[in-house]
Write a structure and sequence with these properties.
Length: about 130
């Protein structure tokens, strides 16, 4: 793999979770991390061409108008090869099923094992990028 860092966007309205997740990923020293607390803010920066988008479903509590589904749909229209990981506290089976139907391949429920699950998925995506 080249020395170029893998660009990741994280969109979540929980500032403390954003901080923890960013610090966790920065420790690996192979990612270039951008964080946003609204979907609109992340969408505005898509020209930076992220390879991975980590996204919460309920992100409109911090004043944004878009939820995770809307952000995912918009982002994938602009970046067809974008890898999207839904990392959310949203456990409603119907919403999870709807997101999978829309193309989410990775849906992680926030909890004790979420960072380990995320690490496994990121390792898989990094292997694909080689």
């Amino acid at each position: 793999m080249s020395n170029k860092k893998i660009r990741i966007f994280i969109i979540d309205d929980d500032e403390s979770f954003l901080f923890v997740l960013k610090k966790h990923l920065e420790q690996k020293q192979i990612f270039e991390i951008y964080t946003f607390n609204t979907g609109e803010a992340g969408i505005e920066q898509l020209h930076l061409d992220p390879y991975i988008l980590i996204l919460d479903y309920n992100i409109n509590r911090s004043g944004g108008r878009m939820n995770g589904k809307e952000v995912m749909e918009t982002a994938q229209k602009h970046l067809q090869k974008l890898k999207v990981i839904m990392l959310s506290g949203q456990e409603d089976g119907q919403i999870v099923f709807e997101m999978i139907k829309l193309g989410i391949k990775e849906y992680i429920i926030k909890g004790a094992t979420a960072l380990d699950e995320l690490d496994e998925i990121l390792h898989m995506y990094m292997s694909e990028k080689v």
